[in-house]
Design brief:
Blueprint: E1 9-13, H1 17-27, E2 32-36, H2 39-48, E3 53-56, H3 66-74, E4 83-87, H4 92-100, E5 103-108, H5 114-141, H6 143-150, H7 159-175, H8 179-186
Parallel strand pairs: 1-2, 1-3, 3-4, 4-5
């Protein structure tokens, strides 16, 4: 059984079980991979759990927009979930719609070996670079947490303050939440 709560979990949503197996074989050595061949089953699973990355096909059966419709629905539950679209559909309009719904990468399925290399590098990039940004975005978007640490509402802060908060939180995610390390790195002390 795959541990879907693992921080390196990847869920694949594709109606082609052969493609799901190929992606699972490609990623399984490094990541905990689970696949779904039906949108209803992944939708149900996403209400209770969330992977580190979701790989999504756009075309299900004859419906070329099923993946995009599903993507719009899941954003209600998981606003910051990193999504990679892998599709045979090479359509700029589909890519734009996917981008508006928070898709961070759009990879076209190809028969050549470049697809496997691109997909593995993309998943690695998501886990190595995007996830801290996603966590930072979640913290910034959590208005209660933001208010507790700043005593201001996010709306009352200008973009410079918001940017500074993102930099600060990125720094914490890099070096850890150590006051000593932050003092050394920034030159500021937490003493009153």
């Amino acid at each position: 059984m795959v541990d879907t709560s693992a921080p390196n979990s990847v869920w694949v949503v594709d109606d082609d079980e052969g493609m799901c197996n190929a992606i699972q074989d490609l990623l399984q050595p490094q990541y905990c991979v689970q696949y779904f061949t039906e949108i209803d089953k992944i939708e149900s699973a996403l209400k209770d759990d969330c992977p580190g990355v979701l790989i999504l096909d756009l075309k299900f059966g004859m419906n070329e927009s099923a993946g995009l419709e599903f993507l719009e629905r899941i954003r209600k539950w998981h606003k910051f979930l990193p999504v990679i679209v892998c599709s045979v559909i090479d359509d700029i309009e589909a890519a734009l719609v996917a981008g508006r719904n928070g898709v961070i990468y759009y990879i076209q399925k190809k028969v050549d070996g470049s697809f496997s290399i691109n997909l593995l590098q993309t998943v690695d990039n998501v886990f190595n670079k995007t996830v801290p940004d996603v966590l930072i975005a979640q913290i910034i978007d959590d208005s209660d947490f933001f208010f507790r640490i700043t005593r201001r509402t996010l709306d009352s802060c200008d973009h410079v303050v918001q940017y500074a908060m993102r930099c600060f939180l990125r720094e914490i995610s890099t070096i850890g939440p150590s006051v000593t390390k932050l003092t050394e790195r920034t030159g500021y002390s937490a003493e009153a």
